[in-house]
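Reproducibility note. Readers wishing to regenerate the assembly model reported in the main text can use the exact inputs given here. Chain order matters: entities are listed in the order in which they were concatenated for prediction.
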Amino acid sequence: MDLYTMICDSIRGFKSNIRKDPITNQNVSSAMAAELTIVSTVLTAAIMLRHLNVVLTILIVLGLVLYLITGMPLISKFKREQSDSLNKMMFYMILTLGILVTSIYWGFKP
Amino acid sequence: MNDLIPLMVIVPIIAAILLNLFIKYNTTIKILSFLVAIVLPIIPILSNYGLHYFGGHAPLMDNGTLLNSLPSYISDGPLSTFHIGITYSFESLQKILIFFLFVVGFLCIFTTIGERKRTPGSYMFLMLMGLAAVTAMLLSDDIFHMYIFFEIAVVAQVGIILASTDNQRYEIAMKYMILGSIGGPILLTGIGFLLGLVGSVNITDIVYVVRNGLVNANSPVFLFSFGLIFFGWLYSVGLPPFHTIKSAVYSKAVPSGSALLQALSVVIFISLGIAIFRIYSSVPFIGVFIIFFSLCGMILSLTMAIMENDFKRMIGFLAVGELGYIGLGFGLGTKLSLTAALFQGLNEMIITATLFIGFGVVLYMTKTSDITKLGGLIEKNPKIAIIVLLGGFAMAGVPPLNGFQSKLMLVQSALSDNFPELAVIMILISIVTFMTFIKAFHSVYLKPKPKNLVIENSDVPRSSVLVMVVLIAICIVLGVVPTLVTDGFSGFVGGLI
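Running the prediction on these inputs yields the following C-alpha cells for the assembly.
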C-alpha cells in the first residue's frame, strides 16, 4: 500500500469514526481540518528541536511523519481520550505530574 | 502608601456579604449589585501607583529608627529587606487589568440583572467574591496570600457553575472540585517547600534571596517546588491536562457566568504566571516548559473545538486554546513577548465575554446550544449577528480588531527571538480558530432555519445587546489604538525583566 492510498483510506475512515454524530459534510470537514491541524502543528513544533541538535531534529521529524501518517485518523483517538470521563482526566493528571516532577528533578540535577 | 488599593478587594467582599443579607429583597439586590458593579471600575482609576503594607508593616529597611535599634545580624543582613506583613503592589499592569476586569464584571452583572426577573443574591455574591479573589491575587506580592484567594476563586467558580440550569452542572462541578482537591494542595505543597527554603512567602523577598545567591537555585528542593507550583498553575488556568475540565466548566455555566469565569481564569493565569516567572527565572528551560504546555493547550483545545457541535462547549475550548497564546508570550520571556502576552490576556477577557454573551442570546431565544438544531437566526437578529461576527473576527485575529494587534505582537516576538516555528503555529491556530468560528456562525445564523426550531423567547433583553455593543466597541478601540494599554504593560514588563 503506497502512502497516498494510506492517507486516502484514513480520510474515508473518518466517517466510521464519527458515527455517533449525524454524518454531515460539515462533520467530516471538521474532522479533516482537525486532523491536518494536529499533523502540521506537531511537525512544525518538532522542528524547534533544532535549537538542541539538528541531527536529532531530522530523526524525530522523520519518525513523527511516519508515525502520524500510519496512525491516521488520529482525531478520533484524541477525542476519545479527551472526554469528560473523570478516570481519564485523573490518569492524564497523574501522568503529567509524574513526568513533570521526574524531568525537573533528574533533568536538572547537577 | 495608598489607602484605595485594598478597597479594590474589600468593596466587592463587603458588597457580597451585604447581598447575602438582603437575599429576600429582589429590588434591593438588583440596585445594590448594579451600584457596586458601577463603582468598582472607578477605584483603580482613582488609585495611585504604589505599595500598601497591611497593618503598616513596612520592611525594616524603611524604618531607620527601628533598624538602628536592632542587632547587627538583623540590620546588616537580608532580614532587614524582608517584608513582614502582606504587601499589595499596584502598578500599571494592575491598574489596566483590574479596570477591565471590573468592567467585564459590571457587564456580566448587568446582563444577569437584565435577563432574569428575579436576581439571586447568592449568584451575585459568587460573582463579586470571584472578582475580589482574583483582584487580590493580582495585587498581592505574597504567594501564600495568592493561594488563599485562588482557592476562594475556585469555590466561587464552582458556585457559578451550580447556579446554571444545565443538567450536567453538578457532575462537572464535582469533577472540577475533585481535580482541584489534587491540583490545589500540590500548589500549596510547592509553596511550602519554597517557604522552608527561603523563610518567606513574599515574592520580592524570594527573588532577592535567589538573585543574591543566598539560596541555591539548582537545589532539588527549589526545583521540586517549581515543579509543584507549575503543576498547580496548569490546574488553575486550564492548560493540559486540565483543558477538558476547564472547557466543560465554561460550557455548563450561564453565558454571563461563563464570560466572568473566563475573565477570572485569565487574571489567575497572569498573576500566578508573573509570580512563577519572577521566582523561577533562573531555572533552566523554564520557557520550554511553559511553551510546551501552552502549545499542547492550543493544539488540543482547537482541534476539539472544531469537532464540537455544542456552541457553548466550542467557545469553551476556543477560550482555553486562546490562553495558550498568553503562555507562549510568557515562555519566550522577552519584553515584547511578555507585553504581547499581557495584551492578549486583556483581549481574551473582552472577546470571550462578547462571544459567550452573544451566543448566550441564541441560547436565551432557542433554549438549545446544539448547532445542528439551529439556523436562520440572522433574520431574527441581524444586529446581534454582526456583533457576534465581529467578536469572532477579533478572536481569530482579523485586523483592525484587538486580537489582531496582540497576535501580531506575539508573532513578531517569536520571529525576533529566532522561533519562526512558533510564529507559524500561531498563525495556523488562528486560521483554525477562524474556521471554527465560521462553522458555528454559519450553523447558527446563515444556514436555513430548521422546520422544528422553536423560538421560545423572541424578545432579546436590551441589556445583553447593550453589553455586546460596549464589549465590541472596546475591541475596536483597543485594535485601533493599542498603545492605550500596551504602553502601560510595556512599562510594567520593563521593571519585571
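We highlight two features of this model. The mean pLDDT of chain A is 82. Residues 3-82 of chain A form one domain.
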